[in-house]
Amino acid sequence: MSYFKVWDWDKKLRTMLRFVKLGDIFCFKLDGDRYCFGRIISKIITGHVAELFDYMSAAPEITEKKINKVKRIYSPIVIDTYGLFDKKVYKD
Predict the structure, then answer these.
(1) Inside any domain, residue 8
(2) What InterPro entries does the entry give (predicted)?
(3) In this structure, what are the phi and psi dihedrals at residue 44, rounded to the nearest 5 degrees?
(4) What secondary structure letter does DSSP report for 72?
(5) Host domain of residue 44
(6) What is the pLDDT of residues 24-65, one digit of tens each?
(7) Residue 46 included in any domain
(8) Per the domain annotation, does 50 fall within a domain?
(9) Is residue 3 one of the residues assigned to a domain?
Protein backbone atom coordinates (compact mmCIF):
# COMPACT_ATOMS: atom_id res chain seq x y z
CA MET A 1 0.00 0.00 0.00
CA SER A 2 1.32 3.44 -0.90
CA TYR A 3 1.42 6.20 1.70
CA PHE A 4 2.09 8.88 -0.88
CA LYS A 5 -0.23 11.01 -2.98
CA VAL A 6 1.50 12.44 -6.02
CA TRP A 7 0.23 15.71 -7.49
CA ASP A 8 1.14 16.86 -10.97
CA TRP A 9 3.63 19.75 -11.05
CA ASP A 10 1.13 22.03 -12.81
CA LYS A 11 -1.93 20.91 -10.83
CA LYS A 12 -2.41 24.23 -9.10
CA LEU A 13 -0.86 27.66 -9.07
CA ARG A 14 -0.57 27.91 -5.29
CA THR A 15 -0.96 25.87 -2.13
CA MET A 16 -2.77 27.64 0.67
CA LEU A 17 -0.88 27.58 3.96
CA ARG A 18 -3.57 25.62 5.80
CA PHE A 19 -3.17 22.72 3.35
CA VAL A 20 0.58 22.27 3.95
CA LYS A 21 0.90 19.17 6.15
CA LEU A 22 3.74 17.46 7.96
CA GLY A 23 5.34 14.90 5.68
CA ASP A 24 4.43 16.73 2.46
CA ILE A 25 7.05 16.32 -0.25
CA PHE A 26 7.75 19.44 -2.29
CA CYS A 27 9.80 20.26 -5.35
CA PHE A 28 11.53 23.44 -6.46
CA LYS A 29 13.45 24.47 -9.54
CA LEU A 30 17.15 24.86 -8.77
CA ASP A 31 18.18 26.24 -12.15
CA GLY A 32 17.17 25.97 -15.80
CA ASP A 33 17.13 22.19 -15.95
CA ARG A 34 17.33 20.76 -12.41
CA TYR A 35 14.71 20.22 -9.72
CA CYS A 36 15.35 19.55 -6.03
CA PHE A 37 13.05 17.92 -3.49
CA GLY A 38 12.32 18.21 0.21
CA ARG A 39 9.88 17.24 2.95
CA ILE A 40 7.98 19.29 5.54
CA ILE A 41 9.06 18.11 9.01
CA SER A 42 7.30 20.41 11.49
CA LYS A 43 5.29 23.60 11.81
CA ILE A 44 6.64 26.61 13.71
CA ILE A 45 5.45 30.20 14.19
CA THR A 46 7.53 31.57 11.31
CA GLY A 47 6.68 28.83 8.79
CA HIS A 48 7.80 25.23 8.65
CA VAL A 49 10.96 23.22 9.17
CA ALA A 50 11.94 21.20 6.11
CA GLU A 51 14.61 18.75 5.09
CA LEU A 52 16.14 18.89 1.62
CA PHE A 53 17.05 15.68 -0.15
CA ASP A 54 20.31 14.78 -1.83
CA TYR A 55 18.52 14.16 -5.11
CA MET A 56 18.13 16.25 -8.25
CA SER A 57 16.11 15.48 -11.34
CA ALA A 58 15.64 16.90 -14.82
CA ALA A 59 11.87 16.67 -14.27
CA PRO A 60 9.69 17.65 -11.29
CA GLU A 61 8.96 13.99 -10.52
CA ILE A 62 10.04 11.68 -7.72
CA THR A 63 8.89 8.16 -6.91
CA GLU A 64 7.98 6.69 -3.55
CA LYS A 65 10.90 4.28 -3.92
CA LYS A 66 13.33 7.16 -4.44
CA ILE A 67 11.91 9.10 -1.45
CA ASN A 68 12.45 6.09 0.79
CA LYS A 69 16.10 5.74 -0.34
CA VAL A 70 17.25 9.35 -0.57
CA LYS A 71 19.32 10.98 2.19
CA ARG A 72 19.14 14.46 3.69
CA ILE A 73 21.64 17.02 2.31
CA TYR A 74 22.20 18.80 5.64
CA SER A 75 20.42 19.78 8.84
CA PRO A 76 16.74 20.79 8.54
CA ILE A 77 16.05 24.43 7.65
CA VAL A 78 13.28 26.92 8.38
CA ILE A 79 11.35 27.92 5.27
CA ASP A 80 8.85 30.71 4.64
CA THR A 81 5.95 28.45 3.72
CA TYR A 82 3.54 31.34 3.19
CA GLY A 83 5.83 33.10 0.72
CA LEU A 84 6.96 29.93 -1.05
CA PHE A 85 3.74 27.94 -1.44
CA ASP A 86 0.79 30.26 -0.83
CA LYS A 87 1.76 33.65 -2.29
CA LYS A 88 4.71 32.42 -4.37
CA VAL A 89 6.62 35.67 -3.85
CA TYR A 90 9.96 33.96 -4.54
CA LYS A 91 10.00 33.46 -8.30
CA ASP A 92 13.68 32.58 -8.75
Answers:
(1) no
(2) Imm26
(3) -135, 175
(4) B
(5) 18-86
(6) 888 888 888 898 899 999 999 888 899 999 999 998 888 889
(7) yes
(8) yes
(9) no
